[in-house]
UniProtKB/TrEMBL annotation:
Residues of the UTP23 sensor motif region domain: 130-149
Name of the protein in question: UTP23 protein
GO BP annotations, alphabetical order: rRNA processing
Chief location of this protein within or outside the cell: nucleus
Superkingdom as given in the UniProt entry: Eukaryota
GO annotations of cellular component type: small-subunit processome
Region (Disordered): 119-172
Source organism per UniProt: Ceuthmochares aereus
Keyword entries, A-Z: Nucleus, Ribosome biogenesis, rRNA processing
Feature: compositional bias, Basic residues: 162-172
Length: 172
């Protein structure tokens, strides 16, 4: 509703955008009596963790930067008449990684693993990565092949005769 109010206030230049926006389903926002700007309203709808799984489609760079800082909010924008889904933000990727690790091992088990490592003395050891040494390889297998015998003149004449027999005439 706030976006439609803003489009009405901006005048006739954005009448087409207003008609397009009216076709979509209206979502109730918390600013019924005193509407705010469209970008502020959209951002307030995703403020509490995006419970309704909204996508944000905008060309406003300020709103896009704010949305990228929120985890789990997909961002759409338009480039040359093509809708583009922006890649997930680092915040979203970190959130997903954290959720996956929490699902694999419960918190109480993580704590017990840490306690067991401390008792065994493994917690303070740092694993050093050893580099593999490059070992000298053998000779090139192609250099070890036996040399091919050169063709004799008789062999070349015989092959020339075969070539003559195989020639075909072109039909034009």
């Amino acid at each position: 509703r706030c976006v439609l109010k803003e489009l009405e206030l901006l005048g006739k230049e954005l009448y087409g955008a207003k008609l397009i926006a009216q076709r979509f389903e209206l979502r109730n926002c918390s600013h019924h009596k005193n509407p705010v700007s469209g970008s502020a309203c959209l951002f307030s709808m995703i403020q509490e963790g995006n419970p309704h799984h909204f996508f944000i489609a905008t060309q406003d760079p300020d709103l896009a930067n704010k949305v990228k800082k929120k985890a789990g909010v997909p961002l759409l924008f338009i480039i040359q008449n093509t809708m583009v889904l922006d890649k997930p933000s680092p915040k979203s990727l970190a959130f997903v990684q954290n959720m996956q690790t929490n699902q694999l091992v419960p918190e109480h088990q993580k704590q017990s693993i840490v306690d067991l490592k401390e008792k065994a003395g493994l917690a303070n050891q740092q694993h050093e990565k050893r580099r593999k040494r490059k070992r000298a390889g053998g000779p090139n297998p192609l250099s070890c092949l036996k040399k091919k015998k050169k063709k004799t003149q008789e062999g070349q004449e015989a092959s020339a005769e075969k070539k003559k027999r195989r020639k075909r005439k072109r039909n034009r």
